Amino acid sequence: MKKDSEVFFREARENAVTYVALKLELLKLGAYERTGKVFSVLSYGLILFILALFLMLFAFIALAFFLGDWLRSPGLGFALVAVLYLLIIGGVFLFRQKLRTMILNTVISALTANENNQNETASEENPAGDAVGA
Q: Which candidate, 57, 76, 54, places its Cα nearest to that of 67?
């Protein structure tokens, strides 16, 4: 009887150690996945930001030349575009908290979108709510 209990407790201890090791591995892989998602969202946002920056730059240069021809003074055209830039910067400064919140919500929704898709897929596969594999 003593041998049976020793074997049982040894196997239980080995199973517990294996369970903890696998749980730590799962947490580590989850952290890698989240980190990868954050970097992908930030990289995508950075690429879009750079492209939008160049688009705005060339559009404002074209606007400055257009205003310069229209007002017959290139300097005045560029000065008006500079004032427009200052107004945009002031608007961004005034609404900085709303912009931060909007960006934060976008990043959070991008990170949780995959979890929501996985939960919806799991509920479609198992509409009764029973444990999968039970």
A: 76
3-state SS assignment for residue 127: coil
Cα separation, 65 vs 75, in Å, equals 9
Residue 76 near residue 67 (C-beta atoms within 8 A): yes
**Cα distance between residue 67 and residue 26, in whole Å:** 60
* Nearest C-alpha neighbor of 81 from the set 94, 96, 66: 66
Tell me the two tokens of residue 18: 């294996």
> Residue 5 carries which side chain, given as an amino acid letter?
S
The pLDDT tens digits for 30-75 are 888 888 877 887 888 899 999 999 999 999 999 999 999 999 999 9
